[in-house]
């Protein structure tokens, strides 16, 4: 089932116009959201990021697009799909609903919500190998647009193909300043003794909702210091740990970068605190 502008349809009955701007020009933003037993995790953070993204790309935000309205639209789809007692991945896409070429005639919007069932209710950490390397064929721009979750994700797609061809679990993306920005689907954190670093938004990383949660958790751990500072590729092999974060996986430790093998003790510690935060929210 899908929710398209409030109408619940079978996936086979849903369609987009051939003039859809999200399809033709990538003129769309989206949120990937985890919902566990009808509880939307970190919903306010997702909502306000979506509103900020729409403003940045000059979409007209409907008066109806309140936090409560979109929450109800998500839960309506989940209930109709018989997923109220399950954990699901929700994708909420907002696209500019207008004719025109590069320049739209209006800034009005439409939305589409889809769901996909997940296996785990809470965040888990599997003790499995997770290998990454740098992707250097193309670079991110250290700009505000790079921080948005938009439909313009070609570098992530090509990077994913590169990872598959080279038997990697993920790739790390660089910006034009040759700093490490993020992974293909996650923000990145670096652990060196008591210092934890994650790239600043000014380097072009996605303004991740899980990134925010992890930073808040680390700030409550007095023995550690969290900094938003650029990460050089040379720092990766000197790190004690590297881990990735997104709202679906939670925390994914990196075990291998080239010939370097990393521990996962800090990642496990933070993951336990994350699950406590989710339960108490």
In words, what does this structure look like?
This protein has about 280 residues and is of the alpha+beta class. The protein is globular, with a radius of gyration of 19 Å. The strands form three sheets. The protein has a six-stranded antiparallel beta sheet. Strands 9-8-7-15-16 form a five-stranded mixed beta sheet, covered by helices on one side. It has a five-stranded mixed beta sheet with strand order 12-11-10-13-14, covered by helices on one side. It contains seven helices and 16 strands. The mean pLDDT is about 95. About 25% of the residues lie in helices and about 30% in strands. It has two domains: about 1-115, D-amino Acid Aminotransferase, Chain A, domain 1, CATH 3.30.470; about 130-280, D-amino Acid Aminotransferase, Chain A, domain 2, CATH 3.20.10. It starts with a strand and ends with a helix. The longest helix has 16 residues, at about 265-280.
Assembly type of the shown chains? Answer: single chain
Unreliably modeled segments: none
Net shape: globular
Discrete helix count: 7
Give, in spatial order, the strands making up the sheet with the most strands: 2-1-6-5-3-4
- Class inferred from helices and paired strands: alpha+beta
CATH architecture assignment name of the largest domain: Alpha-Beta Barrel
* CATH homologous superfamily (4th level) name of the largest domain: D-amino Acid Aminotransferase, subunit A, domain 2
> What Rg do the Cα atoms give?
19 Å
Share of helical residues? 25-40%
User: Distance N terminus to C terminus?
Assistant: 28 Å
Report the major sheet: 6 strands, antiparallel
What fraction of residues sit in β-strands?
A: 25-35%
Question: At the third CATH level, what is the topology name of the largest domain?
Answer: D-amino Acid Aminotransferase, Chain A, domain 2
Mean pLDDT: 96
Q: Class of the largest domain, according to the CATH hierarchy? A: Alpha Beta
Order of helices and strands: EEHEEHHEEEHEEEEHEHEEEEH
How many domains make up the 3D coordinates?
Answer: 2
């Amino acid at each position: 089932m899908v929710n398209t502008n409030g109408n619940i349809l079978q996936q086979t009955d849903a369609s987009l116009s051939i003039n859809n701007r999200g399809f033709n020009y990538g003129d769309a933003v989206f949120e990937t959201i985890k919902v566990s037993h009808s509880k939307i995790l970190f919903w306010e953070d997702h909502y306000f990021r979506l509103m900020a993204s729409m403003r940045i790309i000059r979409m007209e935000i409907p008066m109806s697009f309140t936090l409560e309205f979109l929450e109800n639209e998500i839960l309506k789809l989940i209930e109709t799909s018989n997923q109220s007692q399950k954990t699901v991945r929700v994708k909420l896409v907002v696209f500019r609903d207008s004719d025109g070429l590069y320049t739209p005639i209006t800034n009005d919007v439409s939305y589409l919500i889809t769901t996909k069932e997940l296996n785990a209710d809470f965040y888990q950490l599997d003790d499995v190998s997770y290998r990454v390397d740098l992707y250097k064929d193309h670079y991110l721009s250290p700009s505000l647009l790079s921080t948005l979750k938009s439909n313009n994700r070609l570098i992530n797609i090509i990077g994913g193909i590169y990872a598959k061809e080279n038997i990697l679990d993920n790739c790390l993306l660089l910006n034009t300043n040759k700093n490490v920005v993020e992974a293909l689907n996650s923000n990145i954190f670096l652990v060196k003794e008591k210092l934890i670093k994650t790239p600043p938004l000014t380097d072009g990383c996605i303004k991740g909702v899980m990134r925010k949660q992890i930073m808040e958790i680390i700030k409550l751990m007095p023995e550690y210091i969290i900094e938003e500072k650029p990460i050089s590729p040379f720092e990766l092999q000197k790190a004690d740990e590297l881990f990735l974060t997104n709202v679906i996986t939670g925390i994914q430790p990196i075990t291998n970068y080239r010939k370097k093998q990393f521990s996962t003790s800090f990642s496990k510690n933070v993951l336990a605190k994350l699950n406590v935060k989710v339960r108490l929210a």
